[in-house]
Amino acid sequence: MTMQGSKIAIVGGGIGGLAAALALRAKGAEVCVFEQAETLSEVGAGLQVSPNGMRVLEALGVAHALTDRSMQARAISLRDFRRSNEVLRIDLKALPEDESYWFVHRADLISVLAEAAENAGVILRTSQRVTGVIGAAGTGLAFADGSDFVCDLAVGADGINSVLRPVLNGVSAPFFTGQVAWRAVIDNTICHPPHARVHMGPGRHVVTYPLRDGRALNVVAVQERREWAAEGWNHPDDPINLKRAFAGFDGEVHQILAQVQKPILWGLFRHPVAAVWAQEGVVLLGDAAHPTLPFLAQGANMALEDAWVLADALDAPGTLADRLASYQARRLPRVKRVVGAASANARNYHLKPGPVRIAAHIGLRAVGRLKPD
Ligand code: FAD
């Protein structure tokens, strides 16, 4: 199979699926994206695109369209929960000129990618729920309405509840991390600067950053908990529960949480990184291969990197099996490192008052004073 004219079906019109569609189309493939949702519009809230993700968006030719609708991040500020005093500031203004970090609304990133994909000749089909593959080696997709689609390669970009992942890896049960997160977008009435503020308390933290032209504020509040909460992006909760969970945090956090009317609550689960990412005919990317906890803001960035590397690996000489194996080999070590670091960060944010927390904060302040060589 050469890329020119090969027929590629992508399951999932999320960030990874749309980025892969653009990258594969640029290599000459005929690409069709199948998305289960009725539309590709207003879903989700804020996410962070770091310089590694921006590099991919630049190469796909969509960076300007996105930055026009987004807010450039100037700092990441780690704060103590009681008085909001700063423990560490990562100054993003110090990044080299060609590297930038952005606060983005997920819906904006999806529409920029979808628009560019359609203009490039990618076929986007919504209301199409894939139920599995057809053919022993996965030569096509089966849909909930009984129809099917024959292709040379099926790309599983279908997120945390992927239907293609079990085709390659069997069913694996994720485990509850003992953490839940509320998410909301509110008006930015406190004139929050273009910083990501992480308010760190014992067993809990709150992250805030502005979106779009700065009038909106993205809020994510994480709490350790014994009880299970459903995994997924669409479970509304009572705002009282959110406010109660963060009693004891300083006035700025209260003022922000007081504005939240309709928080979405989701349980944070750990899934093992898939052992098998590809077999002839089927390949995984993004959350379908490696769901990542949100504590390093790398879920979307890893999906973008996967998309770029997949197209690059498929465009090389060799058998399809070799090219797919090269994609997995290029991605796996990096993804494992990032997924591990994201999981470890929750512990760092949630230290209880006492010597360990004091030592950690002194250490963080010292890191903040370090000057590059
Ligand atoms: P996703 O972006 O999750 O995309 C997967 C896509 O596959 C979805 O569009 C889904 O509808 C589709 N799909 C799943 N199963 C099927 C099927 N059987 N047939 C056809 N289509 C299917 N991250 C944040 O940091 N902030 C957010 O606010 C945020 N909101 C989100 C809202 C939604 C509705 C979703 C689905 C994800 C959200 N995420 C959010 C997750 C974030 O987008 C991903 O973690 C990350 O970008 C990796 O992208 P992905 O393409 O691998 O997966």
User: Number of DSSP strands?
Assistant: 19
State the end-to-end distance.
48 Å
Mean pLDDT: 89
User: What structural category arises from helix and sheet content?
Assistant: alpha/beta
Bound small molecules, by name, code or SMILES, are: flavin-adenine dinucleotide
CATH superfamily of the largest domain: FAD/NAD(P)-binding domain
CATH topology of the largest domain: FAD/NAD(P)-binding domain
Largest sheet geometry: 7 strands, mixed
How many helices in DSSP terms?
A: 10
Shape: globular
- Looking at how many chains there are and whether they match, the oligomeric state comes to single chain
**SSE arrangement, N to C:** EHEEHHEEEEHEEEEEHEEEEHHEEEHHH
How large is the radius of gyration? 21 Å
